[in-house]
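Table 4 source record.
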Amino acid sequence: MSHSRALLLVIFLAVMVWLWAPYLSTEQAAQDDKQDVLAQPDYIAMDLRQSMYNNEGQLTHTVNAIKVEMFQELGFSHFQSPTFTLYNQQQNWQLTANEATLYENNTLILEGDVVATNMDNTSMISHINAAHIRVDITNKKMLSEQPVVVSGPNLTITGQGLLADLKTDTIELNNHTRTIYYEK
């Protein structure tokens, strides 16, 4: 009788281990997934609208975004569908992208369908399009190593790489590919 009870106990334990094994392995996988995340945002903002001012009280830039994740310890914020407007007395630019990352040193990295729009309608250059643009917000400079298209009311310029000074409204292409002038 004791052999049959021992055998029944072993069969019962084997069935219990077999039934609980998927649950235990799923719990371990969930714990592994939590450990794989490099960092959690300190806070998340939805439908952000923010204005930034310099020490003299002048508006330097505004930001609108669908979602923002702030990583204070890592020193950056990640934006989804952002619109940044850079103010510089005469030359104001609006920058849009699929996503962007803003670092503590005021370096902004825009990625995915980046469009920089000159808010001055009288300027020779009205838009800059690229897949990736880095912006120094403090010095109002844009840089890209990607293919870019610079367009205005009477021209379209394509090239590889860009250095733009938004204060002086000067743009330099690293590798000029093509320019098309349109008649009025």
